[in-house]
Amino acid sequence: MLVHYTMTPEGIVESREKESPILVFVNPDEKEKHALVGEYQIEEHMVQSALDPEELSRLQFELGYAAVIFKVPKNYSARDHYLFKVSTVGAFLFKDRLILVVTENIDLFASKLFLKCASLQDVLLKLLYQSISHFLGHLKAINMISDELEKKINKAMENKYLINLFTLEKSLVFYLNAINTNGALIEKIKTNEGKLGLTPEQSEFVGDINIENTQCCRQAEVYSNILASLMDARVSIVSNNLNLLIKFLNIITIGIMVPTLVVSIFSMNVTLPLQGHPAAFWLIVSLALVSVFGVFLSWKYFKW
After folding, report:
1. 26-41, pLDDT tens digit by residue?
2. How far apart are CA 216 and CA 59, in angstroms?
3. What is the pTM of this model?
4. Which domains does the chain have, with CATH numbers?
């Protein structure tokens, strides 16, 4: 799907003009891929890189345009089962046009960042900055989810919540790798400011983007290290909860078995003491209760 956008004082809005300065190809089909290669002269391998979720971020200068491949977090849904995924965006900067290739339909220009965009370079840099903000937002969500799962693990006796935490840890590894590769891209943009035609203000903004990405990377590292280092402790908690349950069930089982033994002895089809006593039933019940009480006293005394 191809969507046209133009820059206005109110921000970047959708346009019906074919000669719009910003073109967004959303999960392009074969016909649109041929148009990217044939009409806009974009290398075919660059188009494939923009659609490959495993592609690393990079800056590459081709004849007539600069290709910027960077990573963004994918929109999370309940079907992902706590797995936060990463997607790739391809930005192809021409002299008078910016072409974006994305794999999913997302509102790229909804942020207030795009209210003031004087050039296509501004749009590109703010897309990079927005991707960092999205990573930070997802990291906060991951941290909140992990806190909730930890509370459930304290009472859990099954592996479900542990598996969810393992999935979150896997997500953080993906995010950390994506943020690091974005950092390498930002460093390369800094060293090629002249080729990209950046103004001094835009160069300063690149420095701000680099700082934000570094902080985002450190935050992802902290969350990842916390999850990884405490995973053994959480496994021990689940195991201990299961042991406590088994211990409690054993107490109940033994508590039932002892009075059952007493009653069974007096139920044998032989001559027994108290057989003719008028209160034999109540004496046997009392003896059974005393045996239960004795079991629990012994359990407490020996600290089983």
Report:
1. 888 888 888 888 888 8
2. 21
3. 0.76
4. 2-241 (3.30.460.20), 243-301 (no CATH)
